Amino acid sequence: MSEVPASGKVMVVTGAGSGIGRAVAQSALAEGWRVVLAGRRGAELLATAGGHPGAVAVPTDVTDEAAVDALFRRAVESSGRVDVLFNNAGMFGPAQSVDEISLADWNATVAVNLTGAMLCAAAAVRTMKSQQPQGGRIINNGSISAHSPRPKSTAYTVTKHAITGLTKSIELDGRPFGISCGQIDIGNTATSIMSTLDVARGALQANGELLVEPTFPVEEAARTVLFMAGLPASATIGQLTITAAGMPFVGRG
């Protein structure tokens, strides 16, 4: 699906041990990318890699600046450069309104979803500025919550709105260096986070009702990320939304 042949290109995928990150990493490997897999759990990263010779697993806590810097050094040491960062690591956080959430839970969600994304983007930009030929692409995984929140999702929604600002800032500041940045906002892939929201049994809606929501295969989200990643350097997608058909997003409220 990529527009530019992937052979020899290098992608760093955070949160690669499960869900969307795993699907993107495996799809990229199948298309000929060299993929550096980042995540907290080494065993899950190795499961994603599946012994593929183009995969390098680097256990990484994205909230740890030193660990993130080490991740990108390892990427360059193993593969020579970084062409794409899929900035994907995240957590849903507490299902609570602003008056219920504890400071500890707030800080934990912000640390992973926002600070972690910033640290990975910063390391990617430094790497892309220094390499020849200069440039690269960052794809931030936002969420449809970057547009419209679910009930009881204060911490998650705030961080995903902030990812939009991060995306636009990187895109603007990266232009002189051939670095582009886009955001994919995904709704209701069939992954483990959907179990957290109980979409299969009945997710809480704005009117207080529970509604069984449709999902779509995570492989389709991965194909879309790979399309964004494979565009020529002369093109970029600033923001793209993909959701399960018929899910309560348009008209949510």
TrEMBL record:
<dbReference type="InterPro" id="IPR036291">
    <property type="entry name" value="NAD(P)-bd_dom_sf"/>
</dbReference>
<dbReference type="InterPro" id="IPR002347">
    <property type="entry name" value="SDR_fam"/>
</dbReference>
<feature type="compositionally biased region" description="Polar residues">
    <location>
        <begin position="133"/>
        <end position="146"/>
    </location>
</feature>
<keyword id="KW-0560">Oxidoreductase</keyword>
<dbReference type="Pfam" id="PF00106">
    <property type="entry name" value="adh_short"/>
</dbReference>
<protein>
    <submittedName>
        <fullName>NAD(P)-dependent dehydrogenase (Short-subunit alcohol dehydrogenase family)</fullName>
    </submittedName>
</protein>
<comment type="similarity">
    <text>Belongs to the short-chain dehydrogenases/reductases (SDR) family.</text>
</comment>
<feature type="region of interest" description="Disordered">
    <location>
        <begin position="133"/>
        <end position="152"/>
    </location>
</feature>
